[in-house]
Amino acid sequence: MKAIAAGVLIVSAVLLMAVIFKKRLGWGWLGLFGSHLILAAVGLYIVDFTTLAGTVYIPLNPATIGAVSVLGLPGLVMLIGLKITLFG
Questions:
Q1: Strand ranges (E), the chain
Q2: pTM for this prediction
């Protein structure tokens, strides 16, 4: 079973590299993606350790950072709204 999982991982990695270099994306997308992750983490950190949203605490984990990096500022507002609505 581990051999099958390793084979699928290797094949998918090779195909991903083929798509990246076929479309000539190069490595520039990696810097853009990294900057989005860093800005998302900084935004969550600012909300957590200041009183901009009251006493709302949103943990820094891959799910919250991913949501904010993909959705941007509306994603951050969405997380704050969900935290206030669901957990009071």
A1: none
A2: 0.61
